[in-house]
Amino acid sequence: MKKLFSYLNIAILFIALSAVFTACTDDDVNDSGNLGLNIKVFSPTVVVPGFPMTINGSGFGDVTEIEFPGGIKVTEFEIVTSEMIRVKAPQGLTESGKIIVRNSAGETAESRLPLSVGKTVVAGYSAQEEDLLKGNETLTVYGIGMNFVTGATFYVEGEEPIFVDAHDFLRIASGRVVIQVPSDITDGNGYVAIHLSDGQIVNSPAYTFEAPKNGGYWDYQKRYIWLNTDPAGNGEINWSSQYRLCLEGHDFNSECIDEIAADDWEIIKTGSFYLEAKGSDWVQMRITTGWWSTTWTGEDITTGNERIVDNGDGTYSMEINFEGDPILDLLDEQHLLFTGSGYTPLGLYVIEKVWVDGGEGHFETVRDSFWKNDGTLGDINWSSQYRFCIEGGDSQNECCYEFPAEIWEKLKTEPFRIAINKKADWVNLRVTTGWWSTNYMGLESLNDFIEQDEKGNYYVELNLSNDQALLDLIDVQHLLFTGQDYDLLEIYQEKQIWVDGGDGGEKETIIWEGDGSAGVVDWNGTYRFALEGHDSNNECIAEISAADWEVIKTGTFYLTAKGSDWVQMRITSGWWSTTWTGEDITTGSDRIVDNGDGTYTIEINFAGDPLLDVLDEQHLLFTGSGYTPLKLFYK
After folding, report:
1. Nearest to residue 520, comparing CAs of 626, 632, 374?
2. Per-residue confidence (pLDDT) for residue 633, from 0 to 100
3. Residue 177 exposure: Cα atoms within 13 Å on the Cβ side
């Protein structure tokens, strides 16, 4: 393993330790001065009967009773410490409200936040009745409150049932779970029983199962659960507290850089996740709580430690697993803090696996874009402009787009996704009819259904076929996306398909794609791009995710365009201050590659160019004359 860093001298170490002492003192005064019986936080904030919970606070040593909403009193629980109680949500819990604890002296303490009662509704499956499911393939189960699913049993006629615990699911989220069909499944007909935490069992449609063929492998995919969207602005760690993360809804003092969704917070607490960072020649890394009270592994991780893995691209990664560590009992209340010196966190991610059949072939991700936002509709703010209908169904001229009949049928019968730009930690995203009469799955907001792909982009996966009440209305009443604090960027479908032969070759990753409707470049500022969240003047044609922006700044990417017989291309900043290569690129340049279909492609790499230093602030602009940009991508 390549060592990234050389050792720090004693003088710097002394300064660092002094900084730690100061920071610990400040946080201890702020966070531990609340004595007596008190509930600070509890997790999770949404439960169903029988679901395990943790309550954090103080003065719990002589607690005798916990009262749940609806007056349900519980006396069986575990007092872990005077600051922590473990308890299961009681049977019969149906109301939302505050939690109350009582001690032997008759004193009481009430939670600041209410406890909400969840429910699990299994609404649909990725496989339809009588479909073939092979061993090691995946089955996705859609619904509401799917994080309360505890397991699944596979039944094949004449064979012993095979149980898969929820801990072994490939993906658990509020809106879906992804289950791997057991590798030891046998040929035959059967079904899958979905186990809920309240003891109920929901049976799937009937399927035909098939044992896996010889060969195959696991393909591991990276998914970010937190991404540093502004590494330069947030800065390098220097015994500071800016890289503090918490469970969503638990940042009571507005001190966290980001809040983590409950599903991903559970991964942080129960499984392995990874830190991606960049650093100087020497780092001292402390993974601790926001109160600086307990350090993971009991010591700092410094240069030379085998946990630090060099990625070979100027960054390094480290696997983190809190199992059995004292920090685990404190995270919900005290948050998770990355501190120390000499490094900048870039993101936290998990590795998810997908089974790929053996033989001559490969899986490819196919993305069909049905609609893209061209920026002309404006912000969503409880408005009706993002209304869609079937072609010919807009009798009142109120829809922003009419889908062809075959695409409309796909939206009604198959899962699809909407790509969004989040503008706040909590987003009010409502999917309803154009008459506001019926909300998707009966929910006023789909915030808990928001996910991130492997590049950190936000999306929500919808399956209208699971909601018959909405389906019955949208042909007449249309489909409306409304709410606040988000932008609707795209409506698309993404599928994994098996392609016979080869290994798939080199694949393109699209950063931005247009249809030419924004017009030709004629020394204008139309094709201006910004880092996501940095278009403060609403002047950019698109905002680029942090992961793709990093590719633009540090790697090679490509522009595909169509043009006239002669083009003059200037790749510059949005302030027209610095031009890449110092000169315009014109017809005849070796950089322009003719694709033979009326378009051409240019390879771009900003390494060592002065333009690189101003992109974050001044944006990226393609200007000049005689051409129309169609897409930006990398390989």
Report:
1. 626
2. 92
3. 26
Give the residue-averaged pLDDT of 523-536.
92
Which amino acid, 473?
Answer: L
Q: Where are the alpha helices (DSSP H) in 43-91?
A: none
DSSP bridge pairs for 542: 529
Average pLDDT, the chain: 86
> Which of the residue ranges 172-176, 418-422, 583-587, 615-619 would you say has the lowest mean pLDDT?
172-176
Q: For 13, phi and psi rounded to 5 degrees?
A: -60, -40
Report phi then psi at 475, rounded to 5. -60, -35
How far is the C-alpha of 214 from the C-alpha of 220, rounded, in Å?
Answer: 20
Distances from the Cα of 123 to the Cαs of 130, 467, 514, 622, in angstroms?
17, 8, 35, 46
| Neighbour-count burial for 483-493, b at 16+ CB within 10 Å, e otherwise | bbbbbbbbbbb
Helix/strand/coil for 272: strand
Name the band, by pLDDT with cuts 50, 70 and 90, for residue 524: very high
Residue type, 309: V
CA 506 to chain centre: 26
Nearest to 347 by CA among 273, 281, 296, 283: 273
Question: Residue 219: its pLDDT value, please?
Answer: 65
Instruction: Please tell me whether residue 267 adopts helix, strand or coil conformation.
Output: helix
Helix, strand, coil tally for the chain in percent (to 5): 15, 45, 40
| DSSP states along 343-367 | EEEEEEEEEEEEEEE-SSEEEEEEE
Residue 339, C-beta contacts closer than 8 angstroms, at least 6 positions apart: 20, 23, 237, 239, 240, 241, 243, 286, 288, 292
Q: What Å distances lie between residue 374 and 333, 371, 513, CA to CA?
A: 43, 9, 10
Pick the range with the lowest mean pLDDT from 35-44, 278-287, 341-350: 35-44
Count CB neighbours of 435 within 10 A.
12
Nearest 5 degrees, angle CA 48-CA 49-CA 55? 80
521: left (phi over 0), alpha (psi -120 to 50) or beta: beta
- Condensed to tens digits (0 to 9), the pLDDT of residues 386-437 reads 999 999 999 999 999 999 998 999 899 888 999 998 888 889 999 999 999 9
Q: Enumerate residues 6+ apart whose C-beta is below 8 A from 192.
A: 139, 152, 153, 154, 155, 179, 203, 204, 207
* Contacts of residue 55, Cβ cutoff 8 Å, sequence gap at least 6: 39, 41, 42, 66, 84, 85, 86, 87, 99, 101, 111
Maximum Cα–Cα distance across the chain: 88
What pLDDT does residue 256 have? 95
pTM (2 decimals)?
0.48
Burial 607-625 (b: 16+ CB within 10 A, else e): eebebeebbbebbbbbbbb
Residue 21 has pLDDT above 50, yes or no: no
C-alpha to C-alpha distance for 113 and 115, rounded to whole angstroms = 7
What pLDDT, in 10s, does the model give residues 438-488?
999 888 899 888 888 766 788 999 989 878 899 999 999 999 999 999 999
C-alpha distances (whole Å) from 606 to each of 526, 550, 551, 558, 614 are 21, 11, 10, 12, 11
Structure tokens at 190: 């059967």
Distance between CA atoms of 389 and 405, rounded to whole angstroms? 9
**What is the C-alpha to C-alpha distance for residues 109 and 567, in angstroms, rounded to an integer?**
72
User: Position 568: which residue type?
Assistant: Q
